[in-house]
Specification:
By secondary structure, the protein is α/β, with parallel strands linked by helices. 38% of the residues lie in helices and 30% in strands. The mean pLDDT is 94.
Length: 237
């Protein structure tokens, strides 16, 4: 199991939200690139970056900050938030991004995902963010009628190799992941599932070890000290 240290960018700063709410923002640093270097130095093997402004506005907003992250580290970086066009994908890949995460557009236009996968292969991942098992879009501001697992199956059929699955109710709470939801997702699709949401300590990380997920995104717990990255990476291995 792989640990993905998370960097969420809003207004160029490194922040964390509580349950995806833009009304509950904590700033943890002014320089996302410096944060990325820190996580790499502590053993991070793959960095997860979200352009929060982009997710809401529907286009890349923090492109320069993301470029600087890629230039600052030698480990791969995946990013999502506001990626809606082929040009957006190209722009992210040209920054040095290894994997582009598509969320809202995957729901509204599955054909786009099919075409993106045909062109970019496993550089395309789909982010599935769920409230009560239903897919949420547009920076989690809207909930759809799509069931998360059924939607994941559809994405797998289109050739997607990686799903980032976030349980919004637990995100940023440090109260523990939705283990059952992650297990249900991983057991129902034959592609990589990266779990996101609720990690507050090492026990939370290890509670996912038997679920079949490929990796775990750790955000707020790294910034509050609830999880020490080097120890988490070692334990997850």
């Amino acid at each position: 199991m792989r640990i993905y240290p998370a960097i969420d960018i809003k207004d160029g700063k490194c922040v964390r939200l509580l349950r995806g709410s833009f009304d509950d923002v904590t700033v943890y640093g002014d320089d996302p690139a410096e944060m990325a270097k820190r996580w790499e130095s502590e053993g991070g093997e793959y960095i997860h970056v979200v352009d929060l402004d982009g997710a809401v506005k529907g286009h890349g907003v923090n492109a320069e900050a993301i470029r600087r992250i890629c230039e600052s580290v030698s480990v791969p970086v995946q990013t999502g938030g506001g990626i809606r066009t082929m040009e957006d994908i190209e722009a992210k890949l040209s920054c040095g991004i290894s994997r582009v995460i598509i969320g809202t557009k995957a729901v509204s236009d599955p054909e786009f995902i099919k075409n993106a996968v045909a062109k970019y292969g496993d550089k395309i991942a789909v982010g599935i963010d769920a409230k009560d098992g239903k897919v949420a879009i547009e920076g989690w501001e809207k909930t759809t009628e799509f069931g998360a697992v059924e939607f994941a199956k559809k994405m797998a059929e289109l050739g997607v190799k990686t799903i980032i699955y976030t349980d919004i109710a637990t995100d940023g709470t440090l109260a523990g992941p939705n283990v059952e939801a992650m297990k249900e997702m991983a057991s129902n699709i034959d592609i990589d599932v990266i779990a996101s949401g609720g990690i507050g300590n090492m026990d939370h990380i290890m509670s996912l070890a038997g679920t079949g997920v490929e990796g775990v995104i750790v955000g707020r717990a790294l910034y509050t000290g609830g999880v020490e990255l080097a120890a988490a990476v070692e334990a997850a291995r």
